[in-house]
Amino acid sequence: AIQPVTHENIDIFAQLENEAFPSEEENENFMQTVLESPTRHGYLLYDGADAVGAFNINIETDAFLYGVVVREIYRGRGYGKALVQHALRLGLAQKEKLVLDVDSDNPAAFQLYQKCGFTIAFQVDYYSFTF
Q1: Helix (H) or strand (E) holding 13
Q2: pTM score, two decimals?
Q3: How far is 129 from 88, CA to CA, in rounded Å?
């Protein structure tokens, strides 16, 4: 079952998101935004009582999907596809287009989105400089 993030399950959502995208400095502000924003929403996927995955959607000009995560022990069982399909239904019910960005160095995510019907609109390479 997929449920919206609320005050009751925000800690579980934060843990899932932080496992996949560690950034403790931004985590608390991000969680407040998920709870309070009229355009940004978080969702949790449960298998019974276990939270197995999550995603975020921002409904502004387009629907924007981000922060899709499935706990490692649950990967390869169709949960990612279920999350993305649910996000597509939510986003396309309100906007004509749903977009996302994905790290092309993450082949599993890249394949998942392609299997769900996403196509590459443009590609960006990121570079960093370290002292």
Answers
A1: helix 10-20
A2: 0.87
A3: 36
